[in-house]
Amino acid sequence: MKITIMKKLIFALAISLTCFSTVNAQELEKSLLWEISGNGLTVSSYLYGTIHMTCDATLDEDVIKALDDTSLLVLELDMDDPSMQMKMMKGLYMKEGKHLKDLVEEDDYQTISEFVKSEMGMPIEMIGHMKPFLISAMFYPKLLGCPVKSIEASLMEVAHKQKEEVLGLETVEEQLLVFDEIPYEDQAADLLRSAKDKLVKDKASFEKLLKYYSDEDIEGMIKMMEEDKELSTAKHSDKMLDNRNKNWIAKISEFSKKQPTFYGVGAAHLAGDQGVIKLLREAGYTVEAVH
């Protein structure tokens, strides 16, 4: 597989799991940066909601200060792991040799094929065995309308300058497993919808998401999913976000007790009844917005 395609796939995985969650009854303040204290911590750690694809990845002064006050950066994945590409290759493809043409009608397959050829310049046969959600995610950079920048990359740049380690809350294997738990047919339906309208709805949704992020409205980001319950990201939000959030709490606790840590995770993970903020509070931590 060509290296340029692999780069697109790695980027696709990084942004695939971060834009949707469940509705929350308790409103949270508009803030992307949250301080974690109490429950035996002698020094605060910080939780920051990121967006993996943006036009401006400049970090605010409060975020820089929080990075200065911590000694470890933990993202969703260990983006410094030199074996990430190899690990990802092992989990790209559907089980049992399934192909996209096994999941949709012949006419719909042709629609997707023409869309992939037009937008990506490659035949669908080249990537047809991949999990459909990852094929969809390859088109995400086209939703932005500007050169893609990453908040995670900016966070890592600071960490590297401070000679701090970068670790992850989960592995590449664990992230890719999510796309085996969600029915391939549902993933293919999402891809077909994008192909039929040539990303029109996707672009409108992403523009709205960026506005919520700019306003630091983590509640608004969550409520977006209520507008389109047919998307697999909404239908399977328990697998996309909730279960992962729960798994992260013990790891956040472990890291934070060892040293003050800065956590950068997709902003949609923060709010909600199963969001990281509420789960940390239920675990006994004080989690307060930093304005």
TrEMBL record:
Q: Which InterPro entries match?
A: TraB/PrgY/GumN_fam, YbaP-like
Q: Name one Pfam family in it.
A: TraB_PrgY_gumN
Keyword hit for Signal: yes
According to the lineage, what is the superkingdom? Bacteria
Q: Where is the signal peptide?
A: 1-25
- Keyword line: Signal
| UniProt name for this protein | TraB/GumN family protein
Q: Which organism is it from?
A: Psychroserpens algicola
